[in-house]
Amino acid sequence: MSLFRKSTCLIAGVLIFWCDVGYSQAEISGKWLSPDGDRKIEIYENNGSYSGKIIWLKSNTGKVRVGDIVMKNIIYKNDHWEGSAYIPARDRDLPVSISMPGDDELEMTGKVGMISRTKRWKRCK
C-alpha cells in the first residue's frame, strides 16, 4: 500500500471517528420528560459541558421550581455522559451517569455508596 493511500485511510478514519463523537455528544441536547411524567427538563450546552434546567412541572409543590438548574457539568466520556444532578428526595447533588439506549430515550443512573438507581426519561417537544 502506498504512503498516499495509507495517509488517506488514516485521515478518513480520524474524520469518521471525530464526526461520530461530535454527533453522539449532541444527542443529549433537548427536552426530556421524567419517568413519572411530573417534570420536563431541557438539556443544553453550557461552556463546554451540558446543563439541565426544569422547564415544566406538573405541580409546584416541592423542592424544585421551573427554571432551577438540576443537572451540571455533564461531559461525554467513554460512550456516556457523567456529571451531577440535583435529587429532590435527597435534597443534594449526586454523581450521575447518563446513556442513551435509543434516540429518544435517556437513562440516568445515580449512585449513593453501593446503591444505584436508574430512571429512563423520554424525549419530548
Short description:
The chain is α+β, with helices and mostly antiparallel strands. The chain is 19% helix and 54% strand.
Structure, described:
- The structure is a single chain.
- This protein has a single domain (3-124), classed as Lipocalin.
- Helices cover 19% and strands 54% of the residues.
- It is built from one helix and eight strands.
- It has one helix spanning 3-26; strands at residues 30-33, 39-46, 49-57, 69-77, 80-87, 92-102, 105-112, 115-124.
- Strands 1-2-3-4-5-6-7-8 form an eight-stranded antiparallel barrel.
- Strand 2 (39-46) and strand 3 (49-57) form a beta hairpin.
- The chain is globular.
Strand content: over 45%
Distance between the termini: 50 Å
Q: Supply the helix-strand structural class.
A: alpha+beta
Helical stretch count?
Answer: 1
Give the spatial strand order of the biggest sheet: 1-2-3-4-5-6-7-8
CATH structural fold name: Lipocalin
Average predicted local confidence, pLDDT: 84
Structural shape = globular
Which sheet architecture does the biggest sheet show? 8 strands, antiparallel, barrel
Number of domains: 1
